[in-house]
Amino acid sequence: MITGPAWAEKLRAEIGKAVIGQDAAIERLLVALLANGHVLLEGMPGLAKTLLVKSLGTALGVQFERIQFTPDLLPSDVVGTMIFQPKTGEFSAHRGPIFANLVLADEINRAPAKVQSALLEAMQERQVTIGGQTHPLPSPFFVMATQNPVEQEGTYPLPEAQTDRFLFKLIVDYPSAEEESTMMQRWGQVTKQPALGPASSGEELLALRTAVDAVHVSPAVQGYILSLVRGTRALTDPKQGGKRLLNFGASPRASLALYQSGRALAWLRGEDYVSPALIQELAPEVMRHRIGLTYEAEAEEISPDKIIAQVVTQTPVPTGKG
After folding, report:
1. Where are the domains of the chain?
2. Predicted TM-score of the model (pTM)
3. For 144-173, what is each residue's pLDDT tens digit?
4. CB of 287 within 8 A of CB of 232?
5. Which one, of 315, 311, 313, 320, lies nearest residue 286 by Cα?
6. Which CATH code for domain 210-314?
7. Under CATH, which number does the domain 4-188 receive?
8. Which pLDDT belongs to residue 115?
9. Ranges assigned E (strand) in the chain
10. H helix runs in 48-168, sequence order
């Protein structure tokens, strides 16, 4: 069976034909694929968020669908609806774009909550209900959503129940000067648009998860994961002394996400066990969207990442790989 570094490299090479830079984001997307999790990408316009997800779908060789979220979008536009057939006099299910392996929910915060909630059942149970009938979604199945952090007009914040179902929230940053210069040289002409092809497959991805499940997570590291997640909840209790920074801490899904993604990242880097350093590295992406800042914390411009860094610093680190 192919090794983690080799699998990551062949996908990176294919995605790199269209996307320059964003190596950290690409690695996290591959981790999410292996951990069977969904991803929320946040960043300014023009940072290739949509191109990144589309290129990932092409490189993975799976069915890709893009849904452009707008204020007038309806839940049936996402999951499908019942269509009357005049010839038979019966209703039949018309499947929406959600029936794909990789679904891009582009600018997800531009649609109201009723449309956002149409994704809940799909993201959690990998199925949708149309006309009272349950339809399983293809396997593998992933939702990758994008949103703009600065535009407020015509946007609807994602409910906590929605964001909690994303394995990661990735912050996509600007490219370096060298990367931006390479973009101009490579794509300064219309004739130089890249053509990507499949470098893997959905079947290979499902098979690789067996190797990911074999990665060792020691009891000490499991305890460390619990300490980090429960450490965020301690900040919601004013009895602990000091300032109350959070309205709510990370949910049990954060513990599962750190456990699953820790295994996937270890395998991707050629390791056979999960170290505390990997958990620390993944903690911001896993927990930044799962904690709720108080008004006081926001007024003092304390970010979720700063609070997570504080929890990581104050939590004792286990030694050895167990």
Report:
1. 4-188, 210-314
2. 0.90
3. 999 887 666 668 888 888 899 999 999 999
4. yes
5. 311
6. 1.10.8.80
7. 3.40.50.300
8. 86
9. 38-42, 64-68, 80-85, 90-95, 102-106, 127-130, 133-136, 142-147, 166-171, 246-248, 292-293
10. 49-60, 75-79, 113-116, 120-125, 160-163
